[in-house]
């Protein structure tokens, strides 16, 4: 088993780091980014509901194309796969 952090020590990204203003500001930054993501998700979901069936079909085709490009056996691209995954997630919210 791994070592347990001492009181006042925070385990971050595989290493021990003292808890200070820096880790507090990191937590604040994470909360800020989470709030932005939720807000963007709500707006995207609302916009997507206004799209025509044709536009949704085009977005689904684009997501599939991006996913296919990311799954190339000789050179997989995890970033493209993640982009496609996010597109599918948004499109699934719409129905």
How would you describe the overall organization of this protein?
It is built from 3 helices and 2 strands. 67% of the residues lie in helices and 8% in strands. It folds into 2 domains: 8-50; 52-95. It is mainly alpha-helical and 95 residues long.
Order of helices and strands: EEHHH
Strand content: 5-15%
Helix content: 55-70%
- Count of runs of 4 or more consecutive helical residues: 3
**Main beta sheet: strand number and arrangement?**
2 strands, antiparallel
Tell me how many strands there are.
2
Mean pLDDT: 80
| Count of domains | 2
- Estimate the global geometry from the Cα principal axes: flat
Q: Order of strands across the biggest sheet?
A: 1-2
- Low-pLDDT regions: 1-16
Search tags:
95 residues, flat, single chain, two-stranded antiparallel sheet, mainly alpha, 8% strand, 3 helices, disordered N terminus
Outline of the structure:
The protein is mainly alpha-helical and 95 residues long. 67% of the residues lie in helices and 8% in strands. It has two domains: 8-50; 52-95.
Question: In terms of topology, how is this protein built?
Answer:
Elements: E1 9-12, E2 15-18, H1 21-49, H2 53-70, H3 78-94
Antiparallel strand pairs: 1-2
Helix pairs in contact: 1-3, 2-3
């Amino acid at each position: 088993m791994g070592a347990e952090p001492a009181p006042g020590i925070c385990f971050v990204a595989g290493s021990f780091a003292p808890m200070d203003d820096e880790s507090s500001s990191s937590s604040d930054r994470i909360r800020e980014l989470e709030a932005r993501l939720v807000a963007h998700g709500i707006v995207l979901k609302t916009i997507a509901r206004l799209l025509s069936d044709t536009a949704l079909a085009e977005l689904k085709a684009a997501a599939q194309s991006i996913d296919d490009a990311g799954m190339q056996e000789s050179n997989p691209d995890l970033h493209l796969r993640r982009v496609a995954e996010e597109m599918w997630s948004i499109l699934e919210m719409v129905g």
